[in-house]
Amino acid sequence: QGNMAFTGKYEFEGDENYDDFVTKIGLPSDKIEMGRNSKIVTEVVQNGNDFTWTQHFPGGSSTTNTFTVGKEADMVTMGGKKFKATVKMEDGILVADFPNYRHTSEISGGKLVEISTASGVAYKRISKKIA
């Protein structure tokens, strides 16, 4: 896989179980509509264990989380809530426990595959590499 496996720019390609998941985590309906099938572009800069992870939303807003694998960091959820989390690396997969869900990210077949799990519902988002 190599050390810089995550670095790149990825555009939303498809997802599964979006509505079930965002309802489970209590996302407000305006945020649910904003996120549905939106062409989110995820930009990842990886430098060893240090990551800068930015999601660019249509309309110009973006969210950035900066973290180091194995160290506690201040993060922001997709609903805009701030929290502390320690991101772990397990077999090339990034794992983070958000306040009410677990999030994993991996590069598979050149695509960014993210899975968020809450109360037994797994939301899967696939993004294709564009840069």
Automatic annotation (TrEMBL):
Keywords: Cytoplasm, Lipid-binding, Transport
Keyword RNA-binding: no
GO cellular component entries: cytoplasm
PROSITE patterns referenced in this protein's UniProt entry, alphabetically: FABP
Localization per Swiss-Prot or TrEMBL: Cytoplasm
InterPro entries associated with the record: Calycin, Fatty_acid-bd, ILBP
Molecular functions per Gene Ontology: lipid binding
Record flagged with keyword Lipid biosynthesis: no
Span of domain Cytosolic fatty-acid binding proteins: 8-25
Family: Belongs to the calycin superfamily. Fatty-acid binding protein (FABP) family.
PANTHER family: FATTY ACID BINDING PROTEIN
Record-given protein name: Gastrotropin
Source organism of the structure: Nestor notabilis
Lineage of producing organism: Eukaryota, Metazoa, Chordata, Craniata, Vertebrata
